[in-house]
Amino acid sequence: GAGVSQTPSNKVTEKGKYVELRCDPISGHTALYWYRQSLGQGPEFLIYFQGTGAADDSGLPNDRFFAVRPEGSVSTLKIQRTERGDSAVYLCASSRASAHSYNEQFFGPGTRLTVL
Amino acid sequence: GDSVTQMEGPVTLSEEAFLTINCTYTATGYPSLFWYVQYPGEGLQLLLKATKADDKGSNKGFEATYRKETTSFHLEKGSVQVSDSAVYFCALSPRNSGNTPLVFGKGTRLSVIA
Known about the structure:
The complex is a heterodimer of chains A (116) and B (114).
Chain A lengths: L4 E3 L2 E4 L5 E6 L6 E7 L6 E7 L2 E4 L8 E4 L6 E5 L8 E8 L10 E2 L3 E5 L1
Parallel strand pairs in A: 2-11
Antiparallel strand pairs in A: 1-3, 3-8, 4-5, 4-9, 5-6, 7-8, 9-10, 9-11
Chain B lengths: L2 E4 L4 E4 L4 E3 L1 E4 L5 E7 L6 E6 L5 E4 L2 E4 L9 E3 L8 E8 L9 E2 L3 E6 L1
Parallel strand pairs in B: 2-12
Antiparallel strand pairs in B: 1-4, 3-9, 5-6, 5-10, 7-8, 8-9, 10-11, 10-12
């Protein structure tokens, strides 16, 4: 079946602009995660959704970052007033929901954001 | 907080050489441990996992054993191939069930030459 997809694959913007990054999870996966991967680093957690609600947003770096998942499927990560330090690859992952076993996270290919 | 430390790369090996990539972790409670791999041009893929102490995860000839006494989860392969060239990430989940965000190490780039 289809994996996690992310659009766009690349986004170049200017400092101060607003950007939206989209994630389509695997069908039926109720958990969705956003991570950010800077050059030479491992992915860092941003926010996690269980269904439509954000179960944990402790990784969002500041209030310029916001994410939504209004229907419990597609999610959009929104970044206001972008800064050069926001340049990174933004990764989305999804997993099934079970409280009794580990749920493997399946990752999308990422969106490479470049802020000029 | 929870953290993962893995050996810095890049690591360059000849085909059929033995591979070890070290990984140690700091966590409260009983984390699950993972190795993810990122092949050139592709997304992160789960390579193997272990959810409790002394478990051995294995896949595609790679192995790693969850060592609680040394807080380690070193990745090993007895004979690497050119196709194993990729970036390898050690990661932990603070719990061994349910859905929790992963904590990743910085990654180790492996290049295997023929």
